[in-house]
Specification:
Elements (H helix, E strand, L loop, with lengths): L29 E4 L2 E4 L12 H5 L21 E6 L2 E2 L4 H7 L5 E7 L12 E8 L5 E11 L4 E11 L2 E16 L2 E17 L4 E16 L5 E15 L6 E14 L5 E17 L1 E19 L4 E18 L2 E17 L7 E19 L2 E12 L3 E5 L4 E2 L11 E5 L3 E14 L2 E14 L2 E16 L2 E15 L5 E16 L4 E10 L13 E12 L3 E8 L10 E11 L1
Parallel strand pairs: 3-6
Antiparallel strand pairs: 1-2, 2-5, 3-4, 5-6, 7-8, 7-31, 8-9, 9-10, 10-11, 11-12, 12-13, 13-14, 14-15, 15-16, 16-17, 17-18, 18-19, 19-23, 20-21, 20-22, 23-24, 24-25, 25-26, 26-27, 27-28, 28-29, 29-30, 30-31
Length: about 575
């Protein structure tokens, strides 16, 4: 749809980690704050070689069908991954399966980030915070390849010296797959550079640059590609030792693409943000408020048209602590102006719409290890547009399908989603248990969808054994009209045992089952069962060798293969 929606979840917001409480020497492995919960990875008893994806398997909200990255769909939602409050800008799968949990301090799971983070629709955010490093330089190089023709390379480096931190990542992969006699090739390369400078004890400056390039080609067809670049600058001024701050951010995105259909397009997304956070009355009552503005231009060079949009946001959130009770309420108001012009001989058109996204959360801390949280959020999709051609043909700017004739514009009502959550968490270093009851009711262009889900995940550690297990049950009703309704129910199951032996040996397996069947698709999609087995061996402090046989069960679409990888660590 509109270009800026692609990256709106990359907006940086700094949130208070502790609301008006005295600092403690350690934290519970899982703790709640506002409308999110925090996995304190450093407080868990991990053996050091688990990946970030291994940790995310402990979250009932994070659904995965391949143990490589969170599943993104209209049903499960869409995840944006960030590092230290900055958009990842890299391949999610490569980063999540290559980065060790020992490199991470904590992960914030933000399931309703519409207010402070400005995410539209059902987008959610995974904020990954790296551990603070001692002065010096460290890093790693990881390469892997499988028996089906896929290969990956990953390099990261971290340099810390007093008040300056430099962090860089470079990655690349190639892929080959064959299905129903058709062979496809793909390639990806990306890099990220980040600088954090503590100018004074109260002033912090950060710059981030990332870029990626993707190319795919099916034998016999022309290649498709896309390029993305992101530049971001952040200035943070601490206003008090209790956590008050002022934040200014400016960032911009640029992208270009060439599709299989020959459609060439490009987009730009600059935006700016100013935010303040400070206590009201006392240190148990806090206000975070800000203003954000952005512009987007998306051009199709073949059809010779440009979609443009401009938005202005005002938002505020109040956090209040009363004993063991915590309350949060927030609202973001957006005014969006959208217009199209330079469409050959077609008329220009313009439309302005406004929307509210709000969240209310209450949670109760039974003790340091046990919390019950309830939340309700109103999310929205930006208004949808249909354009009808005089001769009856149909034009939709989302798919760039240009027809001849005069355009008449119809503005649909904005599509709303209401999300209700009830979550309970219990956590200790050797055992965590998390449950989730969620209901999502969202408007569709031709009706509405209601999905109820019940899920639970647990992580248990005893001696050499570590075990992650969980389930999610979904009940779904989709209403296309007053008379036509479709019902569906299915379950996700996961089991991931790990055994760590002396001398650096580690054996793991992941088994995932999803019973959903897409009967209404053009091709019948059967239920999915994924399984893998892996072994890794540490050689000293610098070398790690891993082998995995994946996609053992289920539908073989060219992914069943043996993979071997080597990682070299250097520095501290």
């Amino acid at each position: 749809m509109i270009g800026f929606i692609k990256n709106v979840c990359g907006r940086i917001q700094l949130l208070m980690a502790v609301m008006c409480a005295a600092a403690t020497a350690s934290a519970a492995p899982i703790e709640h704050s506002g409308d999110r919960y925090i996995i304190n990875v450093s407080e868990m008893e991990l053996n050091g070689d688990e990946t970030v994806m291994d940790v995310l398997l402990m979250c009932p909200e994070v659904i995965t069908l391949d143990a490589k990255q969170p599943l993104t769909s209209s049903l499960y939602g869409q995840w944006a991954v960030r590092i230290d409050n900055i958009g990842l800008g890299l391949d999610n799968e490569t980063y999540l399966t290559t980065t060790r949990a020992s490199e991470v301090e904590k992960i914030k799971v933000c399931t309703n980030p519409g207010v402070l983070k400005g995410c539209g629709g059902l987008k959610m955010v995974l904020d990954i915070y790296l551990r603070k490093a001692d002065n010096g330089t460290s890093g790693r190089v990881a390469v892997s390849g499988d028996s089906y023709g896929k290969g990956k390379a990953f390099v990261s480096a971290l340099h810390q010296k007093d008040n300056l931190r430099l962090f860089g990542i470079a990655e690349g992969n190639i892929a080959r797959s064959k299905f129903d006699g058709v062979t496809s090739h793909g390639g990806h390369e990306a890099m990220k550079m980040n600088m954090v400078w503590d100018i004074t004890s109260k002033d912090n400056l950060e710059f981030d640059f990332s870029q990626s390039f993707n190319r795919s080609r099916t034998v016999g067809d022309p290649a498709a590609y896309d390029r993305y670049m992101h530049l971001e600058g952040v200035y943070l001024r601490s206003l008090s030792d209790a956590g008050a701050y002022a934040l200014f951010q400016f960032a911009g995105d640029y992208g270009s693409a060439n599709s299989l259909a020959g459609v060439r397009s490009r987009y730009t997304d600059p935006f700016a943000l100013l935010e303040f956070s400070f206590p009201l009355v006392n240190h148990n009552l806090w206000l975070t408020a800000g203003v954000e503005s952005g512009y987007d231009a998306q051009t199709d060079r073949i059809a010779e048209y440009t979609n443009r949009s401009r938005y202005e946001d005002l938002y505020a959130q109040v956090d209040w602590k009363v004993g063991k009770w915590n309350f949060m309420v927030g609202d973001r108001f957006r005014v969006l102006n959208f217009w199209m012009n330079s469409l050959k001989d077609f008329e220009e058109w313009e439309h302005t719409t406004s929307n509210h996204a709000y969240t209310a959360t209450v949670y109760y801390n039974f003790n340091a290890n046990s919390t019950l949280q309830g939340s309700f959020a109103r999310r929205y999709y930006n208004a949808a547009y249909e354009n009808f051609i005089a001769d009856g043909m149909y034009y939709n700017p989302v798919v760039n399908n240009i027809m001849a004739g005069k355009i008449y514009t119809k503005d649909y009502d904005k599509q709303i989603a209401y999300v209700s959550d009830l979550k309970y968490s219990f956590s200790k270093p050797d055992f965590t248990f998390s449950t989730l009851l969620r209901n999502i009711r969202q408007d569709l262009a031709v009706g509405h969808d209601n999905t109820l889900s019940i899920g639970a995940s647990a992580f248990w550690h005893k001696g050499i054994l570590r075990l992650t297990a969980g389930f999610d049950y979904f009940w779904q009703k989709t209403s296309y009209s007053d008379t036509y309704k479709k019902y569906n129910n299915f379950v996700n199951l996961k089991l991931a045992p790990q055994v760590s032996l002396d001398n650096g040996w580690r054996f793991t397996s992941t088994m995932l089952y999803n019973s959903r069947k897409a009967y209404d698709s053009e091709f019948y999609a059967p239920a999915n069962f994924y399984a893998d087995v892996a072994v890794s061996k540490r050689f000293g402090k610098n070398w790690l060798v891993e082998g995995k046989y994946h996609d053992i069960a289920g539908q073989n679409t060219g992914n069943r293969a043996a993979t071997i990888g080597v990682t070299y660590f250097w520095g501290k």
